[in-house]
Amino acid sequence: MSEDKKSLNFIEHIIEEDLANGLSTDKLRFRFPPEPNGYLHIGHTKAIGISFGLGEKYNAPVNLRFDDTNPVKEEQEYVDAIKKDVSWLGYQWANELYSSDYFQQLYDWAVALIKEGKAYVDSQSSEAMAEQKGTPTQPGTDSPYRNRSVEENLDLFERMKNGEFDEGSHVLRAKIDMEHPNMLMRDPIMYRILKKAHHRTGDSWCIYPMYDWTHGESDYLEQISHSLCSLEFKPHRELYNWFKHNVHKYQPEALPMLPKQREFARLNLSYTVMSKRKLLKLVEDGVVSGWDDPRMPTISGLRRRGYTPSSIRQFIEKVGVAKRENVIDVSLLEFCVREDLNKTAPRVMAVLDPVKLVIDNYPEDKEEWLEAENNPEDPNAGFRKVPFSKELYIERDDFKEEANSKYFRLKLGGEVRLKNAYIVKAESVVKDAEGNITEIHCTYSEDTSKKVKGTLHWVSVKHAVKVEVREYDRLFKNESPDGDQDVDFMEFLNPDSLRIIEAYVEPSLKEAQIGDRFQFQRLGYFNVDEDTTPEVLVFNKTVGLRDTWAKQQPAPQQKQAPQPKQNQPKRPAIEVIKQLGKKYTNLPESKQLKTKAEIQKLAKEVTYEELEPLFETAVKKVGTRIAAMLTLGVLLDEGLEKNEAIEAFIIKAQEDKNDLLVMEANMI
After folding, report:
1. Among 29, 31, 276, 453, which one carries the catalytic annotation?
2. Which terminus of the chain is more solvent-facing, meaning fewer CB atoms within 10 Å of its CB: N or C?
3. Is the per-residue pLDDT at 344 higher than 60?
4. What is the tens place of the pLDDT at every residue in 270-306?
5. Catalytic residue at 499?
6. Is 290 exposed, middle or buried (0-12, 13-18, 19+ CB in 10 A)?
7. Pairwise CA distance, residues 109 & 209, whole Å
8. CA end-to-end span of the chain, whole Å?
9. Annotated catalytic residue: which of 173, 200, 266, 305?
10. CA 102, CA 63: separation in Å to the nearest integer?
11. Is 186 a catalytic residue?
12. Residue 464 confidence (pLDDT) above 90
């Protein structure tokens, strides 16, 4: 078997086998068939990516077809949102189609099935039909109306269509087998009466086809070669096939292709819910501001939060195509957007929790415009000017009156470099009546060649632009919010999922436009929200520079290990990091993410002096070098100043053959 053959996913194997057995490539057709009863969410991106990805791979048409058979829940708003989302992801559909386009044809085929004695009108209540359905281990029983004459069924069905009956009084059922082991084959309903206006057909119809009848026949009408759907539809495949085989004889020459249904595992994401019903409840109950709230897993919510199409497509590619259900850690999605924005987002300075820093020996009326690099990852990004003056804002967390050697930021008597500017030394503080620091007084040196360990970002008070920043966290505290049958998913809501703060940014952001994305240096990635006005800039936090959520969670329960002896010393964090690094490259991606979070947590206990010897790790020990790079990233976030040894370590890693190491080096 060739390498190419081995790399195919199971759906591609099916297609390749069909092609090898005589299916012409120009007969390949795919579709993405959403129901317009809500906004698309991240789970749908997998189905979108599979179908449109196959279209790109085989140069085959992909239809965007709306399965709009339920006028009670479907709206034009959802149609428009779905089209916008698919386009934004970068996909183009061959045809925009609707199942409602086929209502007349579906009705005509249903009449033909009645004439063959393969469908009948049932006049029982839904409760009676459910009771007769049986159970998976007990056969069903026939409806008393199952043997109505063809003439009576045709008459009743036409009168249903003409609106002569009330909702719930009659349904049309396929006549298959009430004792079939697959309960879906026990005379399934094909039509029900719904006297509701449809968003496209208006009041033209008062009977509407059921999903199982509509979906497969829509595929057949469009001559779809491979009908791909998520795993919960696997039991429906038998009914799908029954319907298509029974209508094929009506137009075999005009519609020769019989679609093949195949199922893949749906995308489940930790710390979120994927049910449209539950997402709608969040909207209707006012838990979120709407379907596009940046905390929502909807594509519109992710777009508003600052996610990029390429980051979502990369995520889907990493998840892959599987036959078994599994839950993907949301940190993988966050990793993908970090990796993408790291390459493209301009670097700017912003202070989210400001405290004033006064440089006592800097002239009162002096200001300078210093040069700052826009993006070290993009050689064409250029430079900008940032203003510097006597009074600055820095982050409150970037100063302590007293701190140990692992603290790389500013402390009394200590020195740090101000990014793109000078070195300052903290001399004293001013406090309010409650003991809170209101000012830090420093002196500065124009000798920027001096070696210091920390670098801080800042904003000039005189030039600062006041903005609103919306810091988002995960909407749910529980990894599986809808996984507990005894607890309502709403009980797991995270009360701290949104924090609105007043912040200050450098003046270059005055011209920022809605949708623009930036890296606030040392803080994370942010984008300009659509609520921005000429008076107030509003930024959404897309994601932090590091995955901090994993560090907040309690460790999973392990089997009780033997208790260490009381006098046994705790292993130094750097030794544990080295041990974790040894196995890093051999771990599956999901475990790599957990190990990465563990290394980053331990990194806070490591001094630079402990880390630096790892820069000389042998090239073949890639895992240890990755662990060292992850640790270095945390120390740099903590304010560690880059030096020659650090720069050399990063450059050497960027030239390595291992993609993981190169990626982590580029992130720094």
Report:
1. 276
2. N
3. yes
4. 999 999 999 999 999 999 999 999 999 999 999 999 9
5. no
6. middle
7. 11
8. 40
9. 266
10. 15
11. no
12. yes
